[in-house]
TrEMBL record:
Residue ranges of every copy of the Lipoyl-binding domain listed in the record: 583-662
Highest taxon of source: Bacteria
Catalytic activity: propanoyl-CoA + hydrogencarbonate + ATP = (S)-methylmalonyl-CoA + ADP + phosphate + H(+)
Assigned keywords, A-Z: ATP-binding, Biotin, Ligase, Lipid degradation, Lipid metabolism, Magnesium, Manganese, Metal-binding, Nucleotide-binding
Cofactor(s) the protein needs: biotin
One Pfam family cited in the UniProt record for this chain: Biotin_carb_C
Full protein name: Biotin carboxylase
Length: 662
């Protein structure tokens, strides 16, 4: 077994690999960019080596620097994680040439299956069902349009070396094919150093199902069941589960055997994932093989009881698999929510900055797991992807897994940046998701206008008002206990209050009960009991005898309540104060309609218009790059440009003016 391994990655996955390595008694080496010098994976490692500036193409994507770090530290093997160089054939080959073991498949397998064009051709030769498409390299946008028209819209434009939703667009017409090809090629060049792009037919309304395989050097290959990955936004997975509520035993076996046959065809060794698109009639087509560990691997670990990272290390060290296919049996259900630094109410735009507060939910063996690479006080950088953590919950049934995920999301505290927790929490309440009947079109169909605050509806707003009243009354009861009050002049606390929340008044009556307060709103009564104190962000207690978990905090004169993704900021005052406040004039917000503002922090890559130019609705105005993704800003209305304020190459902050209109 290895004595020391280097993890050629960062963030959550680097920390994940280190945990298993340490469990196995293996010392770890971290590599890091200048932007990551204080990150968690650096602190966790036994040794750490700086490999360059913040930009990944100058650090994490530079093969020579990784090899030099191996030589300097004496690392015997390298685990690549996912992304970066994990599916780079040259990287695995050069490691082998330098006497360093690559904890992953051999370079020839990476070359055959890591390249989407090559892997599709190989799958066709192996008589695996494949989607119609054009599998050769495409020269330019004009050729891409002709190919797309020949296949028939809609088509999927994909980077050959892509992954994680980057370098991928769906085009429904010539214009989208033309623009999508350029965007995919640029993203692929920046993220993977490979700008080759191909096109295939887009199967509308499919399921995205993937099969986890693991193979050793002795010819043993096993599939570890499937993962349901159909909940996607912009072709990037946001939630995964295992097993799939759509797949039956017959299809599971057929897909698994086909995945194993494909792996054996290239003498595959290590963990890998074969992805399929599955139609409503349960016909399935090969999409690609990811020759690496997947982001969503924990759901497979939870239902099979195996440690995939440990298996990868043991296989790389020359050990055989410790089980056979017949030994793999599903145990319960697991769901993973990706917790990302993005604002779900602003089109999921990236959110960067300091994690002022970061309190993941408590973990429980076999029930709740948190894989993360950040800590309170750390910084979410604009240079890398937006993932903060992965929250994985397991249950004996799908319903139990969902219930545990709801509670865990309620207790997940993030302050300082925006996160997609409200969106994930809304999914956990969505009737269609709960039914298990959905496809990759789920998010587009459920949120056709995008995800907005109105989509997070709490079924009992009176409960939120009652909790705000609980917080206010506990504050008042603490305040009236201050010493030194003049006899006969102590404050008398009344029971009638008004909670103002989202433009509505909730008159409530608050009376003390043992351990808490009874709050009455109309005919509804909420007996709230909790030992919650100011400074605590998570409220745990009971409501009418039923356990409840949510977030409650005092912010100045406001009380923030967060429950099932719904967040409100409530003002709690006496009835008389509420009447006086109603007489105050309202302040109108400033008119910003004549400005194009940056919706996120990022790098301004392109300004597509000039002063004096007439612009039509839908026309491209600017391109901002953030977290390795290109974001195109388009005109919402016909307008005329008065002034271009920001220049290409400029680093933008949120709401910074880019263009002024007449």
């Amino acid at each position: 077994m290895f004595k020391k391994i280097l993890i050629a990655n960062r963030g959550e996955i680097a920390c994940r690999v280190m945990k298993t390595a340490k469990k196995m008694g293996i010392k770890t080496v971290a590599v890091y960019s200048e932007a990551d010098k204080d990150s968690m994976h650096v602190l966790m490692a036994d040794e750490a080596v700086c490999i360059g500036p913040a930009a990944s193409k100058e650090s994490y994507l530079v093969i020579d620097k990784i090899i030099d770090a191996c030589k300097a530290t004496g690392a015997e093997a390298v685990h690549p994680g996912y992304g970066f160089l994990s599916e780079n054939e040259e990287f695995s080959r050069r490691l082998e040439d330098n006497g360093v073991i690559f904890i992953g498949p051999k370079h020839y397998s990476v070359a055959a299956m890591g390249d989407k064009i090559a892997s599709k051709k190989l799958a066709m030769e192996a008589k695996v069902n494949t989607i119609p498409g054009y599998n050769a390299e495409i020269v330019d946008s004009a050729q891409a349009v002709e190919i797309a028209k020949g296949i028939g819209y809609p088509v999927m434009i994909k980077a050959s070396a892509g992954g994680g939703g980057k370098g991928l667009r769906v085009a429904f017409n010539d214009k989208e094919a033309f623009e999508g090809f350029e965007a995919c090629r640029n993203e692929a060049r920046n993220s993977f150093g490979d700008d080759r792009v191909f096109i295939e037919k887009f199967v509308e309304g499919p399921h995205h199902i993937e099969i986890q395989v693991i193979a050793d050097s002795f010819g043993n290959t096993v599939y570890l069941l499937e993962r349901e990955c159909s909940i996607q936004r912009r072709h990037q997975k946001v939630l995964e589960e295992a097993p799939s509520p759509f797949i039956d035993d017959t299809i599971r076996k057929a897909m698994g055997e086909q995945a194993v046959a494909l792996a054996k065809a290239v003498n595959y060794q290590s963990a890998g994932t074969v992805e399929f698109v599955v139609g409503s009639d349960k016909s399935f087509y090969f999409l690609e093989m990811n020759t690496r560990l997947q982001v969503e691997h924990p759901v497979t670990e939870m239902i099979t009881g195996v440690d995939l990272v440990e298996l990868m290390i043991r296989v790389a060290a020359g050990e055989p698999l410790p089980f056979r296919q017949e030994d793999i049996k599903p145990n319960g259900w697991a769901i993973e929510c990706r917790i990302n630094a993005e604002d779900p109410f602003r089109g999921f735009l990236p959110s960067v900055g300091r994690l002022v507060k970061y309190r993941p939910p408590e973990t429980a063996e076999g029930q709740v797991r948190v894989d993360t690479g950040v800590f309170e006080g750390g910084e979410i950088s604009m240079y890398y992807d937006s993932m903060i953590a992965k929250l994985i919950c397991h249950g004996a049934t799908r319903d139990q897994a969902v219930s545990r995920m709801r509670d865990a999301l309620n207790a997940f505290v993030i302050r300082g940046i925006d996160s997609n927790i409200p969106f994930q929490a809304a999914l956990m309440q969505n009737p269609r998701f709960l039914s298990g009947v959905f496809t990759t079109a789920f998010l587009a169909e459920e949120y056709p206008e995008g995800f907005v605050a109105a989509d997070v509806v709490h079924d009992d707003p009176g409960l939120l008002a009652a909790l705000a009243a609980f917080g206010r009354r506990r504050y008042i009861d603490r305040a009236v206990q201050v010493s030194g009050q003049m006899p006969g002049h102590q404050r008398k606390v009344g029971s009638e209050w008004v909670v103002q929340m989202e433009g509505k008044d909730y008159p409530v009556v608050v009376t003390p009960i043992p351990g808490g307060y009874s709050v009455t709103h109309g005919v509804d009564r909420y007996d709230l009991v909790s030992d919650w104190k100011f400074g605590e962000l998570v409220f745990r207690g009971t409501c009418n005898g039923t356990p409840i978990c949510l977030q409650l905090e005092r912010i100045g004169l406001l009380y923030r309540v967060v429950h099932f993704g719904k967040q409100v900021k409530a003002t709690v005052m006496t009835a008389n104060a509420a009447r006086m406040l109603a007489l105050m004039p309202k302040k109108l917000p400033p008119d910003l309609s004549k400005f194009l503002l940056s919706p996120m922090p990022g790098l301004l890559r392109e300004v597509s218009v000039t002063a004096g130019q007439q612009v039509s609705a839908g026309e491209k105005l600017a391109v901002i790059e953030a977290m390795k993704m290109e974001n195109v800003l388009k005109a919402e209305l016909d307008c005329k440009v008065k002034k271009v304020v920001a220049a290409p190459g400029e680093s933008l902050s949120v709401d910074q003016v880019i263009i002024e209109f007449e």
